[in-house]
What we know:
With 212 residues, the protein is mainly alpha-helical.
Amino acid sequence: MYRDLSTLFFAAARSLALVLAVSAASCAGDDPEREPAPATQHASRNPRVHWKGGTRLRNDLAQLLQLDAGEVCNEFGAMSCSESVHTVALGGLDPYRNQIFKPSPTTGLSTTLIVERIALQACRRRAERDVAGGEANPLIWRDVATSEGRAASLDALYAAALGRPPGARERDGFESLYAKALAEGPDAAEAETGWATLSCLAVVTSTEFLFY
C-alpha cells in the first residue's frame, strides 16, 4: 500500500506542478485575485534571472522549513547532497577531486532530479514534524485534516516561500491532491503527511522559487 501511495503522490505532484506552472503563466489575467496584465508587455533591458544553485537552494530550504543545513538532504544519511555528492550537477565547483574550477554555464540532465530529491527530503522532514506531532508548535502544517487548516497551511507556505497567497486555481489543485491522497492512502495520517510533503514539493520546485 505504501508503495502505491508513494507512486500516486509522485505522479500527482508532477501533474500539480505542471498545472500550477501553466496557470501562473497563462491564466493570470482572469484570476480575480491578480491584477489584469497590461496590454503591452515590455521586455526588461537588463534581464537578470538566475537559478539559485545548490548552496543557495539548500540554505533557502533550511530557512524556509526551519531545518539545520545538514538536515536538508543527505545521501546515505552522511554526505550532503548539495555540498558533496551532487555539487557539480548543481552548478558548484570541485577543484580538488575532479579539477573543475569553473561552474557549468548550463544545468545537466540530472539536475532536475537532484533538485527534486533535495526538496523532497526537506519537505518530508518538515511534514513529519508538523503533521505527525513531532514538534509542539507546528511551523507550517496545522490541522490539515480540515479544509480550513489546509487553507491556512497553504497561506503560511506561500507567504514564506513566494511572498504571496495562493490563487484560486492553485488551491483547487491542492484540494484535488488531498482527495487523491485520502482515496489511495493506507490511512489518514500517512495521507495527511504525504499531502503536506508533496504540496511543499510543488511550491519549492516551481520556477518562482528556484530562480531569483
